[in-house]
Amino acid sequence: MASAVDSAIQKLATVQLNELSTSSSPNLQKNLSILSPEQIELGKMLLETGQVHLFENWPDPGVDDDDKKALLAQIDLLNSSYPGGLASYIKTARELLADSKAGRNPFDGFTPSVPSGEVLTCGDDNFIQYEESGVKQIQNAAFVLVAGGLGERLGYKGIKVALPMETTTGTCFLQHYIESILSLSQASYKHAQGECQRDVPLVIMTSDDTHGHTLQLLESNSYFGMKPTQVKLLKQEKVACLADNDARLALDPNNKYKIQTKPHGHGDVHALLYSSGLLKEWKDAGLRWVLFFQDTNGLLFKAIPAALGVSATKEYHVNSLAVPRKAKEAIGGITKLTHTDGREMVINVEYNQLDPLLRATGHPDGDVNCETGYSPYPGNINQLILELGPYIDELSKTGGAIKEFINPKYKDSTKTEFKSSTRLECMMQDYPKTLPPSARVGFTVTETWLAYAPVKNNPEDAAKVPKGNPYHSATSGETAIYRANSMILRKASVKVDDPVTQVFNGQEVEVWSRVVWKPKWAVTFSDVKSKVKGNNSVSQKSTLVIKGHNVVIEDLKLDGALIVDSVDEAEVKVGGSVCNNGWTIESVDKDCVELPEEVRIRGFKINKKEQLEEFYGESGNFILKP
């Protein structure tokens, strides 16, 4: 009996406490009876952080009760998915909004200088040595693909990783990435001598928009050759939108029981990895490196082995992949920043911030080209290689939280009202901002033609890009692959004809020979050199597709289309003279709705007129010599 009385007294005390702490919101207070203790705690937190407006239009209990609970369920998700919770999000937002309104410069007190790094040239001895070192390290690496975006910005309704990287073979980005990782893993295993082969892990960060589609793409294609256990999908949640400078959460104008949300940015990948427990698993398994890459850069894996070799050789905790950058070019620059209080960091500084920062710190000309013809601050391409041990140590302090920024669009110069709601954002490459001065942070520069051709602009926007600047479209992304492969063959002593210039979707591009190979044929420059022998030539109109592993090109004269495929047990030598009508590139109208989107956004299609195509399906030695 006594225990029942004690329980009733305790319950009454709890109710009184809740009513006292919710008294600033009569509408919430009168609805306490329909809420669970956990929901009441969330309500109290919202009131304590200045969010009383969320309950202003709540009716009495019995009306819209499910909707009220749905709002608090959404609040619970927003609270649990953000490091430090929603109170921390609102606190940071108020600070950053105050800085934004006051016009404070985030770089006040910092002096920029050129950080240390390695500049590579594809094909020279230094590049080859770093490539070999990197391949050895692949067995100790995990890959993380940031793939939260749809292709709507490109004029493509599907997920971006499902977009064909090039239309000669139709290989999509995700397939190419997975096949590259598998081939690198196989090459690393051969170097390891005696060690057990390890399944190199791949994590894909998805979003509500892409998660289901990504899983479907993997499952319907048997994970493109990976074991399903190798691949983990981590879904990022969105963050709450903010209605004003007081960081009041923005309600959906069409639903008073729903908070507006927007993506937080790819910086979330760090918190997701930390909270998933995968980093500890990887460390326990003996892994040393984590490689982060973006969703639509078809050239990246040509630079990854050498860049990983740089990380291993120089023992970098953080290695940012970069490309040469012209002064004032619209791409962020990797910069060392030193504060008057002694703090140092090596981070990406956006191009529109770098030039004024240099001018304000004793460089009257700002961002200018040096004797190389490029800015000394290399261009950031948002690909990172992190050493796992120091990475875990840092995330154990921060919980994976990345320094955020906010970019409100104000109605006028008073900066008192927003045109539309805003939110905090974070970027993957800002991870080094919290690192101690002892952290070894550097960069690896490789030629743009080898490493960087992202697909992120639709045809209309790309056509407006000033002449000489990169289009970063599906058109330029595909032609860049043919250019890179042709130039690699040239460096391996193949005579490849010069390109011709053509215009597709209003974009003037170089059209090289359509040379494509599967990663299993060559995943490093050394692979290409070892499989190309004698005197070989490829005409500009030609298409060369190599799909087999053990295919050697020797004394081949190609003027047309040649496709060679084989099982791994077949050894094929290809030579002689191949001449046919080949495959041609033909312009298409981007507005022709009868064509698939992936064709329209390129402005061209492949017309497969005539080809020599051979498949070797059994083990043995074969010669293809027309």
Automatic annotation (TrEMBL):
Transmembrane segments: none annotated. It catalyses: a monosaccharide 1-phosphate + UTP + H(+) = a UDP-monosaccharide + diphosphate. Pfam families: UDPGP (PF01704). It is an enzyme of class 2 (transferase). Keywords: Nucleotidyltransferase, Transferase. CDD domains: UGGPase (cd06424). GO terms for molecular function: UDP-N-acetylglucosamine diphosphorylase activity; UTP-monosaccharide-1-phosphate uridylyltransferase activity. Belongs to the USP family. This is UTP-monosaccharide-1-phosphate uridylyltransferase.
